[in-house]
From TrEMBL:
Protein name per the record: Tyrosine--tRNA ligase
Localization of this protein: Cytoplasm
Annotated organism of origin: Sphingomonas prati
Role of this protein: Catalyzes the attachment of tyrosine to tRNA(Tyr) in a two-step reaction: tyrosine is first activated by ATP to form Tyr-AMP and then transferred to the acceptor end of tRNA(Tyr).
Any single GO CC term annotated in Swiss-Prot or TrEMBL for this entry: cytosol
Catalytic class of the enzyme: ligase
Protein family according to the UniProt entry: Belongs to the class-I aminoacyl-tRNA synthetase family. TyrS type 1 subfamily.
Any GO BP annotation: tyrosyl-tRNA aminoacylation
Main location: cytoplasm
Reactions accelerated catalytically: tRNA(Tyr) + L-tyrosine + ATP = L-tyrosyl-tRNA(Tyr) + AMP + diphosphate + H(+)
Length: 401
């Protein structure tokens, strides 16, 4: 671990957030002299973000904890295009009304992790539609486009991936990296922003913005990226067999969110406690040293702390009690996913998110993984009335009449 002078870089480094930094020495010195406004961009492609975005949300939280100013940049403008970074195909284009709805919905998530207001270290939420929608094409090409090399843009991994696979990359998407760089320039002008943060796949885009600010305004700005976050078994963080782990409770019940963290691989417990909770590092060291069955206690601490941050303390207590009653007493807790019956077992599995299609539901039944009130379900056509539906040992839902 590098010896940093600033509380900001010491905090980020000690908790495992830093992958790459542009001019770490100069950024460290800047963070010692005053408040550093820093931003991360989020394209509002859905009404909720999922756990895959949580490292970046926590990164803004750490920025504020270290005495600096978080800027949440919503991509109301860039969201109309879509970031091509490491995507196999173009995103579906969204209407302005849909983007506005998603921005308002996503703000509720950030209000749980950050303190918003007018103070020097209070978080603010901005929308790049404010400046991108007003751009005039010819002046933008003349004033900004001249600073970008097509040769270099073609060399970025996010572009090469699509080209190497001979997958279409539209001119619309190709412009995304220029617009993201322009965001950094605008934020440095409008909000005194000196730092952009993001995942490791954003390194090229961040460097573009740093160079653009230097060339156009002579402003020194900085970038930090986080490591690519995968689970110990190589899976993508925030994705499960049942789909995305949404941060909003109206898209994923409290119990399922809590259970996602409870099911963490033993090897990931310490890392996730550092990244996704505010627990002190010495307490985390004690928890991750637990072995055998005792590591389950650390997983419950992780689930409680992560759920409290995202959903509130009441949600965490409710979910933990549901888990205790479900697994320790064999009864059904109140916060399990619930649907009305009578309903076919196939429809029920899809409705509660245990399967993404009728075909997948039938396969799970055929594999003997589905039970109703403790008895294996063998017929996909079986109708369920009141009782408990289970998939494996860890997924449960209630059928009510």
């Amino acid at each position: 671990m590098t010896a940093h002078k600033s509380e900001l870089l010491r905090l980020l480094d000690s908790r495992g957030y830093i992958h790459q930094t542009t001019d770490a020495t100069a950024l460290d010195a800047l963070a010692c002299t005053g408040v550093v406004p820093g931003y991360i961009g989020f394209d509002p492609t859905a009404p909720s973000l999922h756990v895959g975005s949580l490292v970046q949300i926590m990164l803004l939280r750490r920025l504020q904890q270290a005495g600096h100013k978080p800027i949440v940049l919503m991509g109301g403008g860039t969201g109309k295009i879509g970031d091509p970074s490491f995507k196999d195909e173009a995103r579906k284009l969204l209407t302005g009304d849909t983007l506005d709805h998603n921005v308002a919905s996503i703000r509720r998530i950030f209000e749980r992790f950050l303190t918003f207001g007018d103070g020097p270290t209070d978080a603010v939420m901005l929308d790049n539609a404010e400046w991108l929608d007003a751009l005039q094409y010819i002046p933008f090409l003349r004033d900004i486009g001249q600073h970008f090399s097509i040769n270099r843009m073609l060399s970025f991994d996010s572009v090469k991936l699509r080209l190497d696979r001979e997958q279409s990359l539209s001119f619309l998407e190709f412009n995304y990296m220029i617009l993201q760089a322009y965001d950094f320039l605008e934020l440095s002008r409008r909000a005194g922003c000196r730092l952009q943060m993001g995942g490791s796949d954003q390194w090229g885009n961040i460097v573009n913005g740093i160079e653009l600010a230097r060339r156009v305004d002579g402003t020194e700005v900085f970038g930090i990226t986080t490591p690519l976050l995968t689970t110990a078994d190589g899976g993508k963080m925030g994705k499960t067999v049942s789909g995305a782990v949404w941060l909003h409770e109206d898209q994923l019940p409290h119990y399922d969110y809590w259970q996602f963290w409870r099911n963490t691989d033993d090897r990931d417990v310490g890392r996730f406690l550092r990244l996704f909770t505010d627990l002190p590092l010495d307490e985390i060291a004690r928890l991750e040293a637990l072995e055998g069955a005792e590591i389950n206690a650390a997983k419950k601490v992780l689930a409680d702390a992560a759920t409290t941050l995202c959903r509130g303390a009441d949600a965490a207590v409710e979910a933990a009690e549901t888990a205790r009653r479900t697994f320790e007493e064999g009864s059904a807790g109140a916060s399990l996913p619930t649907i009305a019956g009578p309903i076919s077992v196939v429809e029920a599995l899809v409705a509660v998110g245990f399967a993404t299609s009728n075909g997948e539901a039938r396969r799970k039944i055929g594999e003997g993984a589905v039970k109703f009130d403790g008895t294996a379900v063998t017929e996909p056509s079986q109708t369920l009335n009141a009782g408990r539906l289970s998939l494996g040992k860890k997924k449960h839902a209630l059928i009510t009449v």
